[in-house]
Amino acid sequence: MMLHTATSCNTQLQLATMSSNIRIEKTCEVCGNKYIAKKTITRSCSLTCARLLYKRTKRDEKIEAAIRKEAVVKPFNPAISQKEFLTIDEACQLINASRWTIYRLIDKGQLKAGKVGRNTRIPRTAINELFKLTEV
Ligand SMILES: [Zn+2]
Question: What number is the average pLDDT over the span 64-79?
């Protein structure tokens, strides 16, 4: 490792133009402190802040992924309403309810469901009946 003891103006200029010696005043994204960054990708002032930032980024990624997943499930597939037997997921979409609600309705006996192997199937007619039962 070489020590950068710049004695002449020329050496200093050279160091300043070298990418590894960039010094930028930045504001820490975590604590808001001003600090001198040696790299343009640096986003925080200290190791502690870097760890916090990492955690925060991971959390944001998780939230974003969840939102994206939600968006994928959302678009209603009109073909579902044509089906005779629906999966739990399809039933959820059809009546715009959560899986938990569907399971609870099945549990209460309000929604008739059958098993195909290990998978639950809900007949369309059972869904229609459900709405007859819950008519207001
Ligand atoms: Zn900081």
Answer: 73
